[in-house]
Amino acid sequence: MTDTPHDSDVAFIRSLAELLRDNDLTELRVKRDYGEDDALDVHISRVQPQAPAPVAQPAPVQVAAPAAPQAAPAADTAPADPASDPGAVTSPMVGTCYLSPEPDAKPFVSVGDAVTEGQTILIVEAMKTMNHIPAPRSGVVRQILVEDGAPVEYGAPLVILG
């Protein structure tokens, strides 16, 4: 990029910041090419206030039966933050998530389905482009964390594979 700033760059960056705030986004990246050796690459992000984490209550002590303890259901052992789950498939971009290839079509996957590495599990539309999101590894779909047509942010957990 040349050392001469374009007059419109400051206004453009301010409008991006307003867009970020007005649409409650956390991150935005834009690149403007002005010519062969002249470009503006802007990455804006902000930290949103997070709700306080719930206080963990101690588990009740069982005194009665000498039977072997039963394993808790998988949902009870899942991390509080789905993005930290080792089986989480996260969004590679900001966009709109679609669970099926067309509005009235069968979803790509459902909870309990076995998937193979590379299999399309959903679509994230960004800038009118349908981006097929592949399973990063083979496994079973434990949870689908998004609804069809829901907006998603970069890094948002979409699906949990087991």
TrEMBL record:
- Composition-biased stretches, type Low complexity, lie in 58-89
Q: Which terms in the Gene Ontology molecular function aspect does this entry carry?
A: acetyl-CoA carboxylase activity
**Keyword hit for Lipid metabolism:** yes
Q: Name one GO cellular component term.
A: acetyl-CoA carboxylase complex
One Pfam match, given by its short name, reads Biotin_lipoyl
Alphabetized, the UniProt keywords read: Biotin, Fatty acid biosynthesis, Fatty acid metabolism, Lipid biosynthesis, Lipid metabolism
Query: Which InterPro entries does this chain map to?
Result: AcCoA_biotinCC, Biotin_BS, Biotin_Carboxyl_Carrier/Decarb, Biotin_lipoyl, Single_hybrid_motif
Q: Where is this region: Disordered?
A: 51-95
- What is the documented function of this protein? This protein is a component of the acetyl coenzyme A carboxylase complex; first, biotin carboxylase catalyzes the carboxylation of the carrier protein and then the transcarboxylase transfers the carboxyl group to form malonyl-CoA.
Q: What is this protein called?
A: Biotin carboxyl carrier protein of acetyl-CoA carboxylase
Q: What organism is recorded for this protein? A: Palleronia sediminis
Which gene does this sequence derive from?
Answer: accB
